[in-house]
Specification:
D-Amino Acid Oxidase, Chain A, domain 2; 11 helices; 21 strands; 6-stranded mixed beta sheet; alpha+beta; single chain; 2 domains; FAD/NAD(P)-binding domain
């Protein structure tokens, strides 16, 4: 049994079904509504820390490349571009592009006059240079979980119980709002359900919530394409990929002096385009154990100001604004534990479930099946 039909739950359902197991997925909502659908749908291999995290992301990408075409999920190699507007940012990009971490990845340093070849609306008057990498993919996060669930049901006979709340787990029994079920093993893939079902075990993990502010524009003109994901200097200090660079500290010092409001709200700006032409913009990061913060206009304005310094969208008007949340731990990128015999709880803790879910879940299923 799988509790939670977000990407982590569906990834476990896929590998369990492939292993020949009979699988049922329980989801309290009519469809996934959490972190899986409220972010960018970005598989950013080049933003991963070298070693285990990068390997996990590469394995997950391989699985997506197998699954996406069969399930009718759009998966596009968008690439990404880190733009530099300060000398400290440019120095970090130069060092990173020549580092051992990039030996097996493609990274191209881009001069100011060549920016428009990669993305049409970058403000070259503000940008010193950039680094483009092919190692980022875009998945349609708004449709992926829905289509994956349909495909799992059709191809593997996975049973789905939507609008079903799991109230108690006493192996081998699950007590739900739809009745009692038997399961040889239950995997909890929802942070909220884990907290409700095993509160003491959850509290011991030290998991916090991270709340994000996100926005999306109206559709851009049909003949305009953003191209790669666009990120700036604040993303360079956010992602672990740059952590081994000696020039990182200079950038951190500069940002503490010049970007205090951004650091206060955990803002780093990512821009990505959806298949329907809309542009998704974010995000901020607020951390706490019981977050239910109201939307902050100040945070939105800071994000949009940083966006305007990097680029000018043809249609900048915002159509949607929303809040997202994900489970967070400062160290590592996922948590796996067994609160009871026959029960495993799995939580992705860096907000990158699309990037790691299919790899994490493969290892969990292998461990369960022996």
């Amino acid at each position: 049994a799988i509790v939670g039909a977000g990407i982590i739950g569906l990834a476990h359902a896929f590998h369990a079904a492939q292993a020949g197991m009979s699988v049922a997925v329980f989801e309290r909502s009519a469809e996934a509504k959490g972190a899986s659908v409220r972010n960018f749908g970005m598989l950013a291999l080049n933003a991963q820390a070298p070693g285990e995290q990068l390997i996990s992301a590469q394995k997950t990408l391989t699985w997506w490349q197998e699954i996406a075409p069969q399930a009718g999920i759009e998966l596009r190699q968008s690439g990404c571009m880190f733009v530099a507007r300060a000398a400290e940012e440019m120095a970090l990009l130069n060092e990173f592009s020549h580092s051992p971490a990039m030996e097996k990845q493609s990274a191209i340093m881009v001069e100011r006059e060549d920016l428009s070849r990669y993305s049409p609306s970058l403000r070259s008057e503000n940008i010193i240079g950039a680094m483009w990498s092919s190692e980022t993919w875009k998945i349609d996060q708004r449709q992926a979980c829905r289509k994956l669930a349909v495909w799992l049901k059709q191809k593997y006979g996975v049973k789905f119980y939507f609008l079903t709340d799991v109230q108690n787990i006493s192996p081998p029994y699950l007590i739900t709002s739809a009745g009692q079920f038997n399961a040889t093993h239950t995997i909890i893939c929802s942070g909220n359900d884990f907290a409700a079902l095993f509160p003491d075990d959850f509290q011991k993990t030290g998991i916090k919530n991270c709340q994000l502010q996100m926005m999306r524009t109206y559709p851009q003109p049909m003949d305009w394409q953003l191209g790669p994901f666009i990120m700036g200097g604040l993303s360079m200090t956010h992602y672990k990929a740059f952590s081994n660079c000696s020039s990182l500290q200079d950038l951190v010092t500069m940002q503490k002096e010049r970007f205090r409001s951004y650091i206060k709200h955990g803002i780093h700006v990512i821009v990505g385009q959806e298949p329907d032409g809309r542009v998704t913009i974010g995000d901020s990061h607020a951390y706490g154990t019981d977050l239910n913060l109201p939307r902050s206009e100040e945070v939105d304005n800071l994000i949009l100001h940083e966006l305007s310094e990097m680029m000018s969208l043809p249609v900048p008007r915002i159509e949607e604004r929303w809040l997202g949340q994900y489970a967070y731990l400062p160290e590592g990128y996922y948590l796996k534990l067994s609160p009871r015999d026959g029960v495993t709880a799995v939580t992705q803790t860096s907000g990158q479930g699309m990037t790691h879910g299919l790899s994490i879940s493969k290892d969990v299923i292998l461990e369960i099946t022996g």
